[in-house]
Design goal:
Blueprint: E1 3-12, E2 28-31, H1 35-46, E3 56-59, E4 74-83, H2 91-101, E5 109-115, H3 117-123, H4 136-139, E6 150-152
Parallel strand pairs: 2-6
Antiparallel strand pairs: 1-4, 1-5, 2-3, 3-4
């Protein structure tokens, strides 16, 4: 069974407090743990299961372009793969996965904008992520593929 993606945007009070300092220097972070954990998460989504520890692609563009958020604030954008047609709420799993590698992350969250797979498909059939109303001024140009470099949170 093919998989699709769920997407979450965050408004943050401060940058993400990564345990690995190299992650704080990357525009894109692959949050998946070990290779075996990442492979299991992707296999689960492909085989119709919702991974407990999803492989999360996370962009933190305000580290490099502070104009994308109000002064002193930050944004993060993520997505993870889920089974096609999923309506599961992946937010708790995504946030647990980030918190695993960035303890204290949840304490910095000011607001969230969530789009499940069906929402993403209705919003943009091409699969490209667009700004959400709740965070439009903060995230309108923060595409997760904006890759000035990436780091693995597991390193």
């Amino acid at each position: 069974m093919p998989s699709t993606a769920g997407d979450v945007d965050w408004a943050l009070a401060a940058p993400i407090p990564w345990r690995n300092p190299a992650c704080a220097l990357a525009a894109t972070v692959q949050v998946g743990g070990t290779l075996a954990e990442t492979a299991a998460a992707e296999r689960d989504a492909w085989q119709g299961r919702h991974p407990e520890r999803p492989f999360v692609l996370l962009a933190q563009p305000t580290l490099f372009d502070p104009s994308r958020a109000p002064a002193g604030r930050h944004i993060a954008r993520t997505y993870c793969h889920v089974p096609r047609g999923s309506e599961a709420d992946m937010l708790p799993r995504i946030e647990r996965q980030i918190e695993r590698f960035a303890p204290g992350y949840r304490d910095r969250v000011l607001a969230r904008s969530i789009m499940g797979p069906a929402d993403l498909e209705r919003h943009n059939a091409n699969g490209y992520f667009a700004a959400r109303r709740a965070l439009r001024p903060w995230v309108q140009s923060a595409h997760p593929a904006g890759n000035l470099g990436h780091r693995s949170a597991a390193r």
